[in-house]
Amino acid sequence: MFKRILVAYDASPAAERALLYAEHVARVENAELTILHVYQSPSLYATAHGFEALDETLYQVVNNFIKDAVADLLETGFPNVHILVRKGESTTVILHVAEEMDAQLIVMGSRGLTQVEDLLGSVSLHVLRSAQRPVLIIP
Predict the structure, then answer these.
(1) Checking phi first, is residue 27 left (phi over 0); if not, alpha (psi -120 to 50) or beta?
(2) DSSP reduced 3-state for 121
(3) C-alpha pair distances (Å), 64 with each of 71, 84, 99, 116, 123
(4) Chain CA centroid to CA 89, Å
(5) Which of 38, 96, 117, 130 has the most Cβ atoms closer than 10 angstroms to its Cβ?
(6) Is 72 exposed, middle or buried (0-12, 13-18, 19+ CB in 10 A)?
(7) What is the average pLDDT across 45-74?
(8) Domains with residue ranges and CATH for the chain
(9) What's the CA gap between 108 and 135, in Å, rounded?
(10) pLDDT for the residue 79
């Protein structure tokens, strides 16, 4: 049923749990698993000399951080796992990547607070409202 699963991963405890769920579903379904981390560069400094180098360094740091965070998954020999690091606004990038890769499922963590928007988090709530595909939100 699910051949391509997108995990929106921000290294939060809820995202860690979401990754475990996504891994399980991917193994059962023999699905491709794409782990996406979205970051924003400090645009305040965009006109400063050396911003491009700063932005590239930030990308490398984030990319290495995500690889380290999912090292266990990679080391287990999971056959179809990909890591994507993209710059931009989280909701927009998640929805764009899901469309681009034709994901059959988006998996993401919630923030786990009290109010409805706080419970889901603004990003997960916006993805849930806007996605044209199933979204699994893990508390």
Answers:
(1) alpha
(2) coil
(3) 10, 11, 25, 33, 23
(4) 12
(5) 38
(6) exposed
(7) 84
(8) 4-138 (3.40.50.620)
(9) 8
(10) 77
**pTM, to two decimals:** 0.86
Residue 33 CA to residue 78 CA, distance in Å, equals: 9
Write phi, then psi, for 133 (nearest 5 degrees).
-150, 165
Please list, in sequence order, all residues whose beta carbon lies within 8 angstroms of the beta carbon of residue 16, skipping any fewer than 6 positions away: 109
Q: Kindly report the CA angle at 34 between 7 and 36, in degrees rounded to 5? A: 55
Tell me the two tokens of residue 49. Answer: 């000399």
Asked whether residue 115 carries a pLDDT value surpassing 80, the answer given is no
Nearest in space to 87 (alpha carbons), one of 127, 43, 129: 43
Distance CA 93, CA 100 (A): 10
Q: Distance of CA 127 to CAs 62, 100, 108, 123, 137, Å?
A: 22, 15, 9, 6, 10
- Are 83 and 67 a contacting pair, CB within 8 Å? yes
**Amino acid identity at 113:** L
